[in-house]
Amino acid sequence: MARVVVNVMPKQEILDPQGQAVVRALGRIGISGVKDVRQGKRFELEVEDGVSSEDLEKIAADLLANTVIEDYDIVVESARKEA
């Protein structure tokens, strides 16, 4: 078993209203110096050994991300050994 993390973020050219709202809120609570915030999604998957990298790509591209407006990356965090 392994833990796989899929991070999904808006593409750079896509407006991120949630990120902009966070930047504005930072000013209201007295924090300066943060120029930009991009808000995305993180998915953690526990997968069995038989799940291939091609399967993970399909999951990310077809189900977790809207590839028209979002980019994603896939990170295999750890392989877990069962006792």
UniProtKB/TrEMBL annotation:
It is an enzyme of class 6 (ligase). Its EC number is 6.3.5.3. Keywords: ATP-binding, Cytoplasm, Ligase, Nucleotide-binding, Purine biosynthesis. InterPro entries: PurS (IPR003850), PurS-like_sf (IPR036604). It holds the Pfam family PurS. Pathway: Purine metabolism; IMP biosynthesis via de novo pathway; 5-amino-1-(5-phospho-D-ribosyl)imidazole from N(2)-formyl-N(1)-(5-phospho-D-ribosyl)glycinamide: step 1/2. NCBIfam families: phosphoribosylformylglycinamidine synthase subunit PurS, PRK05974.1. Part of the phosphoribosylformylglycinamidine synthase complex involved in the purines biosynthetic pathway. Catalyzes the ATP-dependent conversion of formylglycinamide ribonucleotide (FGAR) and glutamine to yield formylglycinamidine ribonucleotide (FGAM) and glutamate. The FGAM synthase complex is composed of three subunits. PurQ produces an ammonia molecule by converting glutamine to glutamate. PurL transfers the ammonia molecule to FGAR to form FGAM in an ATP-dependent manner. This is Phosphoribosylformylglycinamidine synthase subunit PurS. The gene is purS.
